[in-house]
Structures are given as C-alpha cells and as structure tokens.
Write a structure and sequence with these properties.
Blueprint lengths: L10 H15 L10 H8 L3 H7 L3 H19 L8 H18 L1 H14 L4 H21 L8 H18 L7 H25 L9
Helix pairs in contact: 1-2, 1-4, 4-7, 5-6, 5-7, 5-9, 7-8, 8-9
Length: about 210
C-alpha cells in the first residue's frame, strides 16, 4: 500500500501519529521486525523526518512500547471506589479483555520486546511491577495479610494468568467470544482465590 501524502501536523500530533502506526504494526509482527522505513512510508514522510521526532530507532521503539504499556495499565486499573471482590474482578476482567483484544501486541511486548531489545526491558519491568502492586492491593482489600513467599507466589500467579489468557481458545466474534471470555475470567479468578487460600497454609503432598 503506497504511503499517504504528508499532512501538516504539530510536532506532538506527528509524534503521536508515528507511535500509533508503530502500535498498529505490532499487531502482526514482533518489535524486532518493526521497520522505521515502513512506519515513515505509512505516515507519508521520509525516514529522515521520522528521526526529527525521535532521536534514534531505539528511542522510537521505547516510545511505542511505553504507549502500549500505558494503554495496558490503564485498561487494568479498577475503580478505587469498588468493593474488594468487585475491585478484584474488575482487575481480572480488564486484564483478560485487553489481552484478548490486543493479543499480538501483548505477546510482542511480554514475550519479544524484553529479549529482542534490552533497551525496553525497564519499561516492561515497570509494567509488571504495576500489576504486582495491584495484586498486592487486591489481596489486602480482600483481608488477606502479608505472608512469607507472598511476592514469589503473586509473580508466579501472574505468569500463570498470562499463559492462560494468551493460550485460551476464544472465537473472534459473537456470543461464543463473550462466553469464552467470561469462562476465562472465572477460571483465572478461581486460581487467584486458590492461591490466597494457600498463602497462609503452606503444606506438602506428604501432609495430605
């Protein structure tokens, strides 16, 4: 598809446009395959002009990853006025819905960005820490006290939830998609409830 003719935009608008194109392209490729030449072509500008708005390809990648992570954290932030159970369910629903609707972008970030581009590992790490803080907040809202190995357990649960959402079979449209999404939310919620039940009751198979 030929590039569009460049339209006159303010610097902030042009920068936002270029980041938006980068996000669109992540829907069908890894960050490592994100071409600044193609981004510039789609925007209808020269590659040289793209680097008027970004210091380097690394700077552009960081801007795209930052935008994607900001959208993700915003989508998973529940209303602070909700009751504890509703708050936790809103967090889980936001997480599930975002990943299902932006699966390839999410995979490009959490599975590809950190390994392919060490320059963005801090951004991905900050995002994971934001989710971890929300999990700790949810745990405390539900009245579960802090316990030893809590941090390890919560991070392990995050990895479990991520794998469940990215691998769960969901139809693209119709009532089947909504039903599968609800089933997935319930599955992840049940796993979190199970984790909370085990945090203060460590045991072994031999003790059962």
């Amino acid at each position: 598809m030929p590039g569009k003719r460049a339209t006159r935009l303010t610097p902030d608008q042009r920068r936002e446009q270029l980041i938006g194109i980068g996000l669109e392209m992540l829907a069908d490729r890894s960050l490592d395959e994100l071409s600044t030449d193609e981004v510039a072509r789609r925007a209808g500008i020269s590659r040289g002009l793209l680097f008027h708005y970004f210091d380097s390809k690394r700077d552009f990648y960081r801007a795209v990853v930052r935008a994607a992570c900001d959208r993700f954290t915003a989508a998973t932030e529940p209303d602070g006025a909700l009751e504890p159970v509703a708050w936790m369910r809103a967090f889980i629903a936001g997480f599930v819905t975002y990943v299902l609707e932006h699966r390839q972008v999410y995979l490009a970030l959490v599975r590809g960005a950190a390994g392919s581009h060490p320059a963005v590992t801090d951004i991905v790490g900050e995002t994971r820490e934001t989710l971890a803080r929300r999990l700790r907040d949810g745990q405390r809202r539900l009245g579960v006290p802090d316990v030893p190995r809590q941090e390890l357990a919560l991070r392990a649960w995050m990895a479990f939830a991520e794998e469940a959402v990215t691998a769960w079979p969901v139809d693209d449209a119709g009532d089947g998609a909504a039903g599968a999404r609800d089933e997935l939310c319930a599955f992840i919620e049940a796993s979190f409830v199970g984790l909370l039940g085990l945090l203060d009751r460590p045991g072994t198979l031999a003790a059962r």
